[in-house]
Design a protein that fits this description.
Blueprint: E1 5-11, H1 39-48, E2 56-61, H2 65-75, E3 82-87, H3 92-108, E4 113-118, E5 122-123, H4 126-141, E6 145-150, E7 161-165, E8 168-173, H5 178-187, E9 190-200, H6 201-211, H7 213-224, E10 227-230, E11 235-238, H8 241-244, H9 252-257, E12 263-268, E13 272-273, H10 278-282, E14 293-301, E15 307-318, E16 323-327, E17 332-336, H11 343-353, E18 363-366, E19 369-377, E20 380-387, E21 395-397, E22 401-409, E23 412-416, E24 419-423, E25 428-431, E26 437-440, E27 447-455, E28 464-467
Parallel strand pairs: 1-2, 1-4, 2-3, 3-11, 6-12, 14-15, 15-16
Antiparallel strand pairs: 4-9, 5-13, 6-9, 7-8, 7-9, 10-11, 16-17, 18-19, 19-20, 20-27, 21-28, 22-25, 22-27, 23-24, 23-26
């Protein structure tokens, strides 16, 4: 590889077929696999370990920045440069790739080669991936927009297909019906569309100017007005919401790949999976002698071909077959393996109902740490709050609730109205409704406290921020 290679991780998507673990505020890339690593961490490592990598660029929602950066820092042992493109809202893959291409052109030059990788896919055969990327870079340096096609081994109806002749793309095909998928598999001329791409920054920008000029023009305007900051590992480019909402929403396939005359494909066998269902995720766990796959705490008797995930409570199953059971603190999924693709209907129904269960878990990640809802009822709510060393919540006020804070471990620096005080382990303080207050962790260990909220309304939108180091005012 002669050109600088910039892996671009697309970290978004709800992962609705993996509910109740994947949720809007905690999407699929953050799912932790049985080996302890998340899909996001695995995507970063396979990109960062490729030859000639100059920088890894991550495009994600700005609400996920702190959590994403924390996930990457845990596995970035070689100090690879990492930069971020932070979107205020999702506008699909064309907008994310356009912004990434402009960033790469400005920082590294238009001849730099981008390798676009979804952060929620899995690749098992890394040597085969390296070979495929090497072939793709050669094609990209010749001016092609390269996609990676996976040689199919089943008549899968959940993927788009690519008809090809060697590296030549004949056509892109939408997700087929089962009979058509069988025909594609038998012909040997079709590949699964992996959603992975490789191209020079200048090449993809030129094709966007040709095929979606309104989109690329709007993205350039957003980058011109973006807030760019230096961070520990690279840069953080935050796009403004008013500007980014003007960008048309489209996929890179529809916007460019299916229209361009300069598209090539690399057929490959790289152990690829989009982890698009509980069946796919369950297949990562070794089965027992009855075909059951258990991730966590479960006991099965007289049961066959079941997948169980439970990280907390014990799940017991007797005399059942072909079931998926996923237990989380606030929701349980029970499904036939044959209906694994239909889980998204539950997710969509919860969203239409306005339920928080599609959006977030009981444990919610914030830039300063996490909070977990332990109990709630009419007029009260109890939370466990954990604040990272040196971090602080915003200076804020609530109209409808008062709060009692009890420190369990660590030391809290508390602003309560006009007073500032240190609250030690086994001490407490009371925040009346209407008081400005702030919680800080001045120590080197995590601060853990219990918060008891009492009031007529306990929603998270009852908050007025006056100062915030994370720019949320």
């Amino acid at each position: 590889m002669k050109s600088a290679l910039i892996p671009v991780l697309l970290c978004g998507g709800a992962g609705s077929r993996l509910w109740p673990v994947s949720r809007e505020a905690s999407p699929k890339p953050f799912i932790r696999l049985p080996d302890g690593e998340s899909l996001l961490q695995k995507a970063f490592l396979r990109g960062a370990h490729l030859p000639e990598v100059t920088e890894v660029l991550i495009a994600t929602n700005r609400e996920f920045f702190a959590r994403t950066d924390e996930e990457i820092s845990r596995v970035n042992q070689h100090g690879t440069r990492v930069s971020y493109l932070l979107e205020p809202v999702g506008r699909n893959t064309a907008a994310a790739i356009a912004a990434a291409a402009e960033h790469v052109r400005i920082v590294h030059g238009e001849d730099s080669v981008m390798l676009v990788l979804p952060a929620d896919h899995l690749v098992d055969d890394l040597p085969a991936l390296h070979d495929a990327v090497e072939e793709a870079v050669v094609l990209a340096e010749a001016g092609n927009l390269v996609t990676f096609g996976i040689r199919p081994d089943t008549p899968e109806t959940g993927f788009g297909y690519i008809e090809h002749d060697g590296n030549i793309v004949r056509r892109f095909v939408e997700k087929p019906a089962k009979a058509q998928a069988v025909t594609y598999l038998e012909s040997g001329r079709f590949l699964w569309n992996s959603g992975m791409f490789c191209f020079r920054a200048g090449s993809i920008l030129a094709e966007m100017d040709r095929h979606c000029p309104g989109l690329i023009s709007a993205v350039r305007a957003c980058l011109n007005s973006a807030d760019t900051q230096l961070i520990k590992t690279g840069t953080k480019v935050s796009l403004t919401e008013t500007c980014f909402l003007q960008v048309p929403e489209d996929s890179i396939d529809y916007a460019v790949m299916e229209k361009s005359e300069h598209v090539a494909v690399v057929p490959c066998d790289i152990g690829w999976s989009d982890i698009g269902s509980w069946v796919a995720l369950g297949n990562l766990v070794e089965p027992d002698d009855r075909g059951n796959r258990i991730d966590g705490n479960a006991m099965l008797h007289g049961s066959h071909n079941c997948y169980v995930q439970s990280t907390d409570r014990l799940v017991g199953m007797l005399g059942v077959d072909n079931l998926i059971v996923v237990d989380t603190p606030d929701a349980v999924l029970v499904a036939s393996r044959d209906e694994a693709q239909s889980v998204k209907h539950l997710y969509n129904s919860l969203r239409k109902q306005g339920s928080d269960l599609y959006k977030q878990h009981r444990t919610v990640h914030r830039p300063w740490g996490t909070y977990t809802v332990l109990e709630g009822g009419s007029g009260f709510q109890i939370k466990r709050i954990e604040v990272k060393p040196g971090a602080s919540l915003s200076l804020q006020m609530h109209h409808h609730r008062s709060e009692h804070w009890i420190v369990v471990s660590g030391t809290a620096n508390v602003t309560n109205g006009e007073r500032t005080m240190l609250v030690q382990k086994n001490e407490s303080t009371y925040i009346p409704a209407g008081h400005q207050h702030r919680l800080e962790n001045p120590g080197i260990l995590n601060l853990v406290m219990i918060e008891v909220q009492v009031g007529e309304y306990l929603g998270e939108d009852d908050i007025v921020r006056f100062e915030d180091v994370y720019g949320r005012c």
